[in-house]
Design goal:
10-stranded mixed sheet; 29% helix; alpha/beta; globular
Length: 285
Amino acid sequence: MTALSSHASHVTNNQVANNNYVQLLFNEPDCCGMAIRDLSIFAKKKTILTVDEVRFPKTGVVSIMGPSGSGKSTFLKALSELMDENLSHQGKIDITCVNSANKTNDRRMSICSHFAMVWQKPTVFPCSIWDNLKVPLRKRNVPRNEWKGLMEHALEKVGLINELDKQWTRQRAQRLSGGQQQRLSIAMGLLKDSNIFLFDEPTSALDPVATEKIECIISDLGKNKLVLLVTHSLGQARRVSDYCAMFHHYDDKGMLCEFSSADDFFNSPASPQSRKFIMQETGFK
């Protein structure tokens, strides 16, 4: 990935995206949280995903949808720089919603420091809840005497504090249920103090009750942060989305084919790929 910038690239109104269904919203710096341009991902020199241009808001939930293999998860991995050794990528990402933990404009910082990542399988360490939660605090150099208060606040935000043992600091993270572990992962993201959350199908293995809890957290996060959510569930996207992005296959590679508000996407999808995807998922034309 090319340079990370703390200032958004400006796109004038007379510039048109290569794909007519990708709405270039958030022209003003005050509302643009992240701009992506000319992103390409390669596997052994073969292009497997391209994103010509898209701009995301500073706050809100963006649901990323599309058929399997269209590059949704790969897109998140490229943003977070968690690429497979067989993959390479190039492009430009400009971020304005720099996390409050790192207000410096140090270009040497890894771009992944700006993201909190929550994947399909909960990423908790085989140790105590305390030891899991202290990882992002240590990386931020937060004084130790502040740890417990910040941890309890994060656990409260994800609805876990009242579900844990009284001696939760010693409780093993792996004793938690799958849904609880996923919420613990989100709490770790909160303690990282990033302003962008990346979710890759975080509820695909959860029951409806656990799913509802995660969706409520995602909606709440979107009030103050930018959330990118990969989901195969149209119902979930309808419930939590402010904006929608659709990926599809074209010429043996994945491409971003549509970006719009959630209302536009679900009420009048512009691209034929989006209309087909919605029809296949719902059974209605």
